[in-house]
Design a protein that fits this description.
The complex is a heterodimer of chains A (about 525) and B (about 270).
Chain A lengths: L1 H24 L2 H12 L12 H19 L6 H31 L13 H7 L5 H26 L1 H24 L2 H25 L1 H27 L7 H15 L11 H23 L4 H20 L4 H4 L5 E2 L5 E2 L2 E2 L3 H23 L2 H11 L1 H6 L4 H27 L1 E2 L6 H14 L4 H17 L7 H15 L18 H14 L1
Antiparallel strand pairs in A: 1-4, 2-3
Helix pairs in contact in A: 1-4, 2-3, 3-4, 3-6, 4-5, 4-6, 8-14, 9-14, 9-17, 9-18, 9-19, 10-11, 10-12, 10-17, 11-17, 14-17, 15-17, 18-19
Chain B lengths: L3 E12 L2 E12 L3 E5 L6 H9 L6 E6 L2 E2 L5 H7 L1 E3 L12 H8 L8 H6 L2 H20 L15 H14 L4 E5 L7 H18 L2 E5 L3 H7 L2 E6 L2 E6 L1 H6 L1 H8 L3 H17 L1
Parallel strand pairs in B: 3-8, 3-9, 6-7, 7-8
Antiparallel strand pairs in B: 1-2, 1-4, 4-5, 9-10
Helix pairs in contact in B: 3-5, 3-6, 5-6
The chains are: A mainly alpha (about 525), B alpha/beta (about 270).
Chain lengths: ~525, ~270
Amino acid sequence: MKNHQARTIIQKGLLFALILILIMAIGFHEIAAALVSRVFSVDVRRGSLPEVRFMMYFFGLYAFISGWATAGKEGSFSQKLLQGIVASAVAGLIVALFDILLVYLVQNGIDIREYLTAFSTASMSYFLFDRGQAGLLQHLVYFVIFGGLGSLLHVIRDTEAAQNAINKASFFLKSSKEKIDNALPPFVRKYGKYLVLMIVAVAMYILPRLWGSYINFVLGLVGLYVIAGIGLNIIVGLSGQLVLGYAAFFAMGAYSMALLNAPTPHNILLGFWPSLIVAMIMAVLAGLVLGLPLMGLRGDYLAIVTLGFGEIIRILLKSDLLSNLTGGPRGIHDIQGPTLFGRPFFSDINYMYIIFVAVALTIFVYNRLQESRTGRAWLSIKEDAIASQATGVNLKKYKLLALAIGAAFAGLVGGISAARNQFTGPNDHSLLVSMNVLSIVIVGGVNSVPGIILGAFTLKGLPEILREVENYRQLLFGILLIVMMIMRPNGLWPATRPLYEHMDDPESTKKTSGKESNNA
Amino acid sequence: MPDLIIETREVSKIFGGLTAVNQVDLEIPRGSIYAIIGPNGAGKTTLFNCISGFYTPEHGQILFQGNPIQGFTTDFISGQGISRTYQNIRLFANLTAIENIMVGQHTNLVTAWWDAIISSPRYRRENANSRKNALHWLDFVGLNGYGDYLACNLPYGMQRRLELARALASDPTLILLDEPTAGMNPQESEEMMAFIRMIREKLEKSIILIEHDMRVVMGISDRISVLDYGTKIAEGSPKEIQANERVIEAYLGPGGAALAKKYQDRRRNKQNA
């Protein structure tokens, strides 16, 4: 038993040490320190490392987390604490061994960047807090102190008293929320939803004017991906057809907008709004044209065929064959922006408004659909297509409908983003775009609107804001997906189904209360 | 001519070289409980699948209330008023129990997707009605209070009953039950038998069932057909089937009839003594 425990402690310590060493090996510690400095709102000058103290903060934080994670799960208070401290100490020792190597390399001025790009002298000594051997000792001390602190907090949290306190607090929060709900005047309780919506609408009118064009750009992007995510969710999440060529529908929308509303190559200049409608219609047509031959396919086969469809559209757009028609690989420039009542309406703020309205519309339509007969039919197809058909659902009709509606939203996104960027080209509609949208849906939570919004923020918004992490985006993406699948297999914000049996029925409650008063 | 709900005329279904159903003639009167029995692999479920449209028979005709229905898709046939349950339960696992029943009503609802988006009055009316109906069927099969559970979280017996509720929700004229008491203990099958009788009496539906549990079959069915290797070998009332030598041989093997007779005689002698 003891032997077994010791082995797990050492394994845990080893794991955290290895992760830290890997972080150093890819140079991520610099990025992490830069992120920490962001938190303290200290800007890092381009091409230079953040201040050393931020590296120390990061190291302390890391040690704390490893202590938290390695604290024992069984045994007495002191036993659990001891396990955490020992594991942290093991991690510290291993890191210190690694540090010896670094110190040797730094002191002898050996630069092995040729083989391992992250191991520049500056980067290595930065990892050692710019202190050489003293840094090595500091690492060990940090691991023991902060790791110990982490385990201590974890162990305290696990004690019965703390659990009781947490339960009490959450109960207090819940009950006080109910109290507030009950205390609200009936007018607010009845129309509170609309009140909140109005406040949001006003905020959405004012905020884009305040927070500057950069935030507008990022939030606009997030908004567009929210629409795309919800559109794809109708196809994948509701009707259960795994379509991997979603970007093809964007392309239909974007190119409709571009060809109808740019000076080159055709100079039609139809105007933004009619073009947007054409964009959606073209995307729907593409959805139907793709859908008809696909009706017999399911699962993997459907995924592969739609993936091919996406690539065909992209390569067609890129090819010389259609370059007279679509501008070929150069794409189409100078797409005209929208006008509203004869006035130009294409500043970043205006686009923000357009996107807000489009997102609101999308969420509205999605919510209405998914709670309807149509939505239930889609879900039943996803759950068991054969049983669903035998219950009377016309598979072909409903699958095509899902494809068409999902594609319409993609056309909307394509149209708006083409006009917003004033450019569209074949590479805007690559496979990676389809994959991004799919990841947003899966990471956020299939069939869950708040989940998809959260997913769009996490996967599209954060990387835009955290520019430092740019090079590590794919890495973080992968790690995030793996962690997600383990920790929250149903997404960040999993979907729930409407509860019809115990649904509040205001009329019936009114009636019963009326009866009671009569009897009294 | 008697009022027939289903008539099959020389229906054959062939898989490759195997004739799963071989020229089966059935005449099932309206309002009856009709059982199809037979050893494993006799073609009972294949016959069901032909009636409900999963398979198209290679040969023969299936008439539902006098109209041919072979060759149509399952959703069309379900719309005509035939619904069914499955040998291995096929619920929509991640929908709630009520939603399962609401999907069951699909063929009776008419509103389209744009109705839902603009929330038209007829959509709202229909949705409220559909919920009310679902609650009614939930109550009918005794799943009160379980309506908001996901179907996959219900225990086995309840899933069986929920599947029945889903089949009933479309208000069909004919219900096909594929082994309704499979995996149930004697008491549960007793309840299921009472329930099936109630469906016939109260709702005036016709029922065809496949069943292996002879107590159930002999207890509730008006008439029984026996299939063996895809061919109908006997038809009649439960009494007649029990006495039929070909049926006993199909179940017990050649010489089985004599054996069964011996056991019956011995038991009778014991009882007399």
